[in-house]
Amino acid sequence: MADALFAFEAVVVEAGGRRILDGVTAELPDRGVTCLVGPSGSGKSTMLRLCNRLEVPTSGVVRFRGTDLAELDVLAHRRRVGMVFQRPTPFPGTVRDNLLVARPGTDDGVLGVVLERAALPEHFLDRVADELSGGEAQRMCLARTLVTDPEVLLMDEPTSSLDADAAKELERLARRLADDGVPVVWVSHDLAQVDRIADARLLVDQGRVHRG
Amino acid sequence: MPACSSTRGGCTVGDSAIGWGGLSASLLLVVVAIGLSAWRRLGLEATIAWACARAMGQLLLVGYALAALIDDDAPASLAWAWVVAMVAFAAVTVRRRTPEVPGAFSLALVATGSSAALSLAVVFGLEIYDAVPRAIIPIAGMMVGNSISGTVTASRQVIAELADHRLEVEARLALGQPWTEASRRQVRAALRTALMTQIESTKAVGLVFLPGAMTGLILAGADPVDAVLVQAAVMFLILGAVATNATIVGLGLARRLFSSDHRLLPLARSTA
Asked: What is the pLDDT of residues A53-105, one digit of tens each?
């Protein structure tokens, strides 16, 4: 049987005297769109951050395709496992400047192709990143992540600050990436959204995981 | 060489000392401050009185200690020991003023010690002043004293910048950037802020305010142009010391705010 994309083994996360994850044991499939769904503060974003080691477990093990994350080179791992955050985080400068942060020296032709994967036209390369609309900025952040050619995409409530049309556009892009063989792990508290995009779902509540 | 040398005249203790009578007269202004506090019901009368009494006691203690230390027959080693004590006390002060900064004491100790060593090496190595106790102690005092505020500002700014821009820093980390690159913009902004305070102060000197060393020399009877030369040299040394201090603290603190596996640790001012 193939290894899970991510496997959580008795994972506990504590911070500020509070137990955020309470002995989570779960596996995320290595295909399609997997949604981590649950109320605010349930621990689902912490699970996502564990996947690219922006957090580490207080105890327990998180594995990526069978290998303990603690044994991997963290910087190389983060380039294999891209992440899009809840709010768009444009860096100073143009869209081109932003994409080049992810892979310096990449030529405009390649950057244009990446922008297209995020449903943005190539002429956006010269746009000032801070001046993009919320939806455009979030798609630029997706493109910036795709520049590293990640094997997996982590999305932490990426539509929470977007209008309905922009949210659906991002859902469509995630679906297309998953269909192209890039597994997506998507955190959401919106059950209707989960119904639209999830191939698999894990319910997270009070630091524990229940299969949906 | 000191501008106020005994050969120039007009700079003797007899000329510059105000005596106990002069000191008592200056207390009139403390009475004014206490009176204003009472009039406006600020409730600061006892605090003002205690602050003045404490300052007087501390200064007298320092004065008597300095009188022994800067005596022409006193060994320079005692003066250097005093400098070491000042550096240690500065580190304690920084730790007390920045409880939110991890490892503030050791950071401040290294930074203040380094900047003091650099400044004093320039002053005495280039023979701007002779390395005698009368020069060692006041110059080191000015370097170390000004470095405290630079250290506090730099460390608070580094934490504030990283806390305020946590999203950006983590987005960069998530792209595989090491912490040094991911935090470069924030650390640079923090250092700029810490240094700008001193730069602005340097720019305003003479126009907006007359600094202490120069005022003291003029009051003591030194030629104003000589006093200006001394003050300018002191200012440049302070600027260099503050820049060295802020840089060491900024970079050292940033290192401590990230884990060895490039994670931004929880911060006191975190907005995440």
From this structure: 999 999 999 999 999 999 999 999 999 999 999 999 999 999 999 999 999 99
| pLDDT tens readout for residues B64-117 | 888 888 887 888 899 999 999 999 999 999 999 999 999 999 999 999 999 999
- Tell whether ipTM is more than 0.85: yes
Long-range contacts of A76-81 (CB under 8 A, 24+ apart): A76/B176, A77/A52, A77/A53, A78/A52, A78/A53, A78/B173, A78/B174, A78/B175, A78/B176, A79/A148, A79/A150, A79/B175, A79/B176, A80/A148, A80/A150, A80/A151, A80/A152, A81/A51, A81/A52, A81/A150, A81/A151, A81/A152, A81/A153, A81/A154
| Angle at CA of residue B103, ends A58 and B148, nearest 5° | 150
Distances (CA, A) of B256 to A28, A151, B155, B189: 34, 31, 11, 18
Predicted model pTM: 0.83
Write down the pLDDT at residue A170. Answer: 92
Interface contact A75-B171, CB threshold 8 A: no
State the Cα torsion B238-B243-B247-B249 to the nearest 10°.
Answer: 30
Mutation for testing the A interface, residue in B188, B261, B267 having most A CBs under 10 Å? B261
One-letter identity of residue B44 = L
Q: How confident is the model at residue B5 (pLDDT cuts 50, 70, 90)?
A: very low
Q: Which residue type does B51 have?
A: A
Structure tokens belonging to residue B69: 């230390």
- How many beta carbons lie within 10 A of that of residue B100, not counting itself? 13
Q: Which residues of A touch B174 (CB under 8 A)?
A: 52, 54, 78, 82-83, 85, 145
Interchain CB contact of B176 with A (< 8 Å): yes
Collect all residues of chain B within an 8 Å Cβ-Cβ radius of residue A78. Answer: 173-176
Whole-angstrom Cα distance, residue A28 to residue A6? 5
Q: How many CA atoms does the CB half-sphere of A141 hold within 13 Å?
A: 31
Residue keyed to tokens 């290595």: A30
- Going by pLDDT thresholds of 50, 70 and 90, the confidence category of residue B170 is very high
